[in-house]
Amino acid sequence: MAGNTKELRVRIKSVTSTLQLTKAMGLVASSKIRRANEGMFRAREYKKSLQKAISSLTASSECLKSPFMRWDGGQKTRLIVIAGDRGLAGGYNNNVLKLAAEYPDAEIIPIGKRACERFGKELNSSEKYSFQEAYTLAEALCEDFKDEKFDRLGILYTKYISVMANEAEISWILPLSRSESSDSSVVFEPDDLTVLNQVAKEYVAGMLIACLRESFASEVAARRMAMDSAGKNAKQMIEDLKLEYNRARQGAITQEITEIVAGSGN
To answer: 9 burial class (0-12, 13-18, 19+ CB within 10 angstroms)?
Structure first.
């Protein structure tokens, strides 16, 4: 019985340490949520402006000559897969990697330490990924697309729905699709085709940054929810273990009293 109470004390101490860890990680995630959301909303506005400009350009029949609007039905796919730098965020990373597995023939460009580990590439950070890094990657991707090294480009990221919900999805970036509507008040110089070919790199970089900011906001929200859930589970486990410990201790005391009484009777 004494051994049982000792084991329970060790387990209570272990779960208490886990509870303290989940509280700390939850506080860190909470402190990042505001900054992550601000970055996400700014990136959404930038993305909306880029999409509006691209929509005006691709509505022009002249832009059909652009290599970025080429589509010959090829299936050579490149996917930029955005995952987190750390775990303990519920199903956040797993959902991204599970969706990526649905494209076994795609060439993967991972961003985020978890994605890099999964696909065996050099580690980089999804949280600290800069616009300059995104633009450099966009330049290389646009050149490869023009050289017909792949047929379509997608960004696999996590869409932020709310603090309690997010969803892994793919945003297809290249080739550009023709828009049916255009803003006739916008005049591009020197001409629509030249502008589209120049702005394509900015568009790919901007879409990538928007997806990165969206993913990071989803990650910190998912981590806070996961830590809140883990904390509640740990508290319940501690209560159950304490109850079991008190019962075991009371049983040990009762047994000792019984033995003493029995011994004194002899």
So the answer is: middle
Q: Decide if pLDDT at 2 tops 60.
A: no
CATH architecture of the domain with residue range 37-224: 3-Layer(aba) Sandwich (3.40)
Rounded-to-integer distance, Cα 133 and Cα 138, Å: 9
Over 160-211, what HEC string results? EEECCEEEEEEEEEECCCCCCCCCCCCCCCCCHHHHHHHHHHHHHHHHHHHH
Q: What is the DSSP letter of 61?
A: G
- Angle at alpha carbon of residue 198, lines to 196 and 200, rounded to 5°: 65
| pLDDT at 184 > cutoff 60 | no
Distance CA 45, CA 39 (A): 10
Residue 80 dihedral angles phi and psi, to the nearest 5°: -90, 115
SS3 60: coil
15 against 205, higher pLDDT = 205
Q: For residue range 14-71, what is the model confidence (pLDDT) as tens digits?
A: 777 777 777 777 777 677 888 888 999 999 999 999 999 898 889 888 888 999 998 7
Alpha-carbon Rg for the chain, nearest whole angstrom, is 28
Query: Residues 255, 166: contact at Cβ < 8 Å?
Result: no
The region that residue 10 occupies, defined by phi over 0 for left and psi between -120 and 50 for alpha, beta otherwise, is alpha
In sequence order, which residues have a C-beta less than 8 Å from that of residue 3 and are 6 or more positions away? none
Q: Give one DSSP letter per residue of 72-101, joined into a string.
A: -S---EEEEEE--SS--BTBHHHHHHHHHT
What DSSP letter does each residue of 106-159 carry, written as one string? Answer: SEEEEESHHHHHHHT-----SSS--HHHHHHHHHHHHHHHHTTS-SEEEEEEEE
